[in-house]
Amino acid sequence: MGFTLRNGISFCHVGDRIIFLDIEADRYFCLSPDAEYSFRALADGATPPPDDAHVQGLLARGLLTASVAPEAPAACPPIVMPRTSILDLDLPRPAFAGTTSALCCLAATRVRLKMAGLGRTLSWLSTRKSRLPTSRALPEGQVERIMAGFVSAAHLASQIDLCLANSIAVASRMIAKGIRPDVVLGVQLGPFSAHCWVQHGDRLVNDRVDMVRTFTPILVL
To answer: Are strands 193-200 and 203-204 parallel, antiparallel or unpaired?
Structure first.
């Protein structure tokens, strides 16, 4: 018998703590120290005693589901850490169509997040990405042209505290152009904060290296 995370739950290790993300509820959380100890043992492949109240509590809360196979909850896998950022390049002059498309993507993403919620929005994005071929020759400078439009749009639409909507909008635009981006949600402690960005391989698309390097990925789409 094993245990797996419920769909929509992910976690990562930050220092000596475990942080969880429930995308359906759109919230981050930690467990009590005793419950975290039991969960950590499960993640390490240990078999809990039948009377472990903390494991039973995690099952009752729906955080875990029992599995016939000998499985264990798996943390968010590591990513290729970005080395450079497209924002540090001399971006091409944005075309009017590129700026307009960026503004439309931003507006549509904010509406989608509000109406559909985080879980369904990320599922929609992931499904679209999965339909693209895993390898494809891209026109030179395509990602740079997309970001030029979003940088231009940022002068017209406020981006304060909207890293999630911005990242989903950028990724959506890239997918529409046949590019497979990685949307990364990361967390840090001391104090707690969360951040979201887009990568394409080892290049940051809509953020800077110094901004994201202190965050630990908790979900990658």
So the answer is: antiparallel
Q: What pLDDT does residue 81 have?
A: 87
Residue 27: partners with Cβ closer than 8 Å, 6 or more residues away: 21
Look at residue 113 and tell me if it is in a domain: yes
Give the chain's domain count: 2
Q: Which residues contact 114 (CB under 8 A, 6 or more apart)?
A: none
List phi, psi (to 5°) of 124: -60, -45
Please enumerate in sequence order all residues whose Cβ is within 8 A of that of 134, keeping only pairs 6 or more positions apart, or say none.
180
Per-residue pLDDT tens digits for 18-68: 999 999 999 999 999 999 999 999 998 888 877 788 889 999 998 999 888
Residues 90 and 13 in one domain: no
**8 A C-beta contact, residue 82 and residue 202:** yes
Judge contact between 72 and 3, C-beta under 8 A.
yes
Structure-token match 């109240």, residue found: 53
What is the structure's pLDDT at 113? 95
Q: What is the DSSP letter of 179?
A: -
Distance of alpha carbon 138 from alpha carbon 135, whole angstroms: 9
Structural domain contains residue 120: yes
